[in-house]
Structures are given as C-alpha cells and as structure tokens.
Write a structure and sequence with these properties.
about 325 residues; alpha+beta; Aminoglycoside 3'-phosphotransferase, Chain: A, domain 2; 2 domains; 11 helices; Membrane protein; Kinase-like_dom_sf; Aminoglycoside_PTrfase
C-alpha cells in the first residue's frame, strides 16, 4: 500500500486539519481502508486496489455505485456513501492512487456466528425497504445476466496444477459438478432475469456496521446494481446463517426471511431458482479468487495467498450448499 498524503487529502476534500496518523482498519479482501481523524470529524479512507484500476470503465463503475448509495441514503436507507469533492466527483486522484472518503460510522462488524434473531429480523426488514424503493437511474446500464464459460474451469485448473497450488486437484476433481452448477445457474437466469431491481447486492457481514442491534448501516456499495430481489434475499440469508463458515444456522436464515415478509417484502421467485442464482454468484467469485491465486489482479504475494484461501473456502461453501439444497429450498418456500 502506498503512503497517503493526509494533508493533501484533507485539503482536496475540505476535511479539516488532520489529527494524528492514519490508522489501518483490519479486513477487506480487495482494498485498503484507514481511519482518519480531523478537526471536522472522523473519516474512512479507502484506497482502491491498483491492480484492478487497469480495467476499462472501473472508476466510472465506482462512481455509479456511489451514486446508488447516495440516492438510497436520500430515500431513508442507512447507506454510507462516499463524500464528493467540490466538483461532485467521489474519486480522489492522488499520486497515482484512487481514493474514496466516507464518514466514519462507529459500531462493530458482526460475524455470522454472533448475529441473533432480533438483528436477523432487522436485516430482513432492511432488505424489504431496499426492494420497495424500486430505484430508477436512467444512466445505469441495462441489466445483462453474467455468463460463465466452461473452458475457464479447465484452463485455470491446468494452470494451477502447473504451479502446484493446493486447490488445483480438489477443484479439478469437481469439474463435472462445476459444469452442472453452471448449467443450473444459467437456467435459473432465464427466470430470475425477468424480475430485477437496483440494490446493494452484497449484504454480507463485512458490509454491515451495527451502531446498535436495531441500526445496521450498509457500507461498501461497490457491487451495487441490478439484482433479482429473491436471489439477494436468499444469498443474504445464507451468508448470515453461516454457510460460508461451514456451520449454517437454520433459525437465522428463517429469521431474515421472516423479517423481510413482515416488512412487506414479497418473495416472487422459487427457492430453487434463487439458490441456483446464488450458486452462480459464488461460482463467479470462485473464478475471481482462482485467478488472483494465479497472480492476476494482485499487487503482492499476500493478495495471492488471499486468493488461495478464498478459493478453498468457496469450494467448501458450494459443496455445502448443494448437499443441503433441498432443505434450503423448502425453507424459502415456507415464506412464499
């Protein structure tokens, strides 16, 4: 991570005089975040991963996601949006770095294992609020279902075998299932793609700050955009139930769905289609982490190691999801 010139950041954004040094914030799989205290308040500074800045239109995508967050906040959603510069842009270009600045929100990030039923209900209600807005943004590009390509699995696992990566053989042995899961995702997309809206899309534990048990704040809107509401609900419920840690709690999953319907949310699509949609999202993340572990879109060996770790974690999650798919589908159908 390059050193950030705090004085210049404060001057650019009119943030006041800095008090003390930047404090690194733990967590974050892609970007670096620091805490900055100034004479005008406390802020979070996010340094975007330089390895990802070479992609075309990346910064414009961040501008759009922050616009979504800002519009959500204007409409009463507890969304933490980036603070704009005087010209309205949210991207701070500084010494070859791209930075985003946010108001600092006090509160913990709860792990899936520490979420209780009341907080789970609250989270479900918040999703219902998001979906009820039916936010429209004329300049948002039209929705396109993301396709996965069979040959990617073959190519990446061969490359990993050549490098003797730990996940190479386990993932390669899964090729038949990976292709089967990909087909299920593509088929679900023909149905899910008919019911889309603009939302956060990634309400996982690392993206929710709890200022109190009843007051969650949604941060990290970088993935904001089009999503099927049932798919977002089910993915959120699965993640917070603990499926990515290997110990899912059915009562938390159900409490999120209960909170959603109690707040007026309507579950339109089938549990099976929603689960297969979630499967595709995680397959996409698996491909991304596989590529990172092979040295793509990284700037350090540490980031490669994160890719290796996340690859193994996502394989375990997909195995667990498919092993208990029928049960998760049944739980969703109870609330339709």
């Amino acid at each position: 991570m390059k050193t950030i010139d705090v004085e210049r950041v404060c001057t650019m954004g009119g943030l006041g005089k800095p008090r003390g040094e930047l404090q690194a914030v733990a967590g974050g799989l892609l970007h670096h975040v620091c805490r900055l205290e100034t004479s005008q308040g406390v802020f979070a500074i996010k340094q975007l991963n330089p390895a990802m800045m070479g992609e075309p239109d990346t910064l414009d995508a961040y501008r759009m996601s922050e616009k979504i967050a800002h519009l959500m906040a204007e409409r009463g959603i507890p969304a933490v949006a980036a603070l704009p510069l005087a010209d309205g842009d949210v991207i701070y270009n500084l010494d070859g770095m791209a930075l985003l600045v946010y108001p600092w929100i006090e509160g913990p990030l709860l792990s899936a294992s520490s979420l209780d039923l009341h907080a789970a209900n609250t989270l479900g209600g918040l999703l219902a609020q998001l979906h009820a807005l039916q936010l429209t943004i004329p300049e948002l590009p039209p929705f396109v279902w993301k396709h996965l390509h069979d040959e990617d699995w073959d190519i990446l696992t061969f490359q990993a075998s050549d490098l003797n990566l730990a996940w190479a053989n386990p993932v390669r042995s899964l090729l038949p299932q990976l292709l089967e899961w990909t087909r299920a995702y593509e088929e679900a997309g023909t149905v899910l793609g008919q019911h889309m809206l603009v939302s956060h899309t990634n309400c996982e534990p690392g993206n929710v700050i709890w200022s109190s048990e009843s007051s969650p704040w949604l941060i990290d809107w970088e993935a904001a955009g089009w999503i099927n509401p049932t798919m977002e609900l089910v993915r959120t419920a699965l993640t917070w139930s603990g499926i990515t840690t290997g110990q899912p709690r059915e009562e938390i999953f159900s409490a999120i769905l209960a909170g959603y319907t109690a707040a007026g949310g309507v579950i339109q699509d089938t549990g099976r289609d929603a689960l297969h949609g979630c499967m595709g999202t995680w397959l996409g993340w698996l491909l991304f982490t596989m590529r990172r572990s092979l040295g793509e879109s990284v700037t350090s060996e540490e980031e490669e190691q994160i890719g290796i770790r996340e690859t193994s974690k996502m394989v375990a999650t997909l195995r667990l999801l498919t092993a208990h798919e029928a049960h998760w589908v049944e739980l969703v159908e109870r609330w339709r």
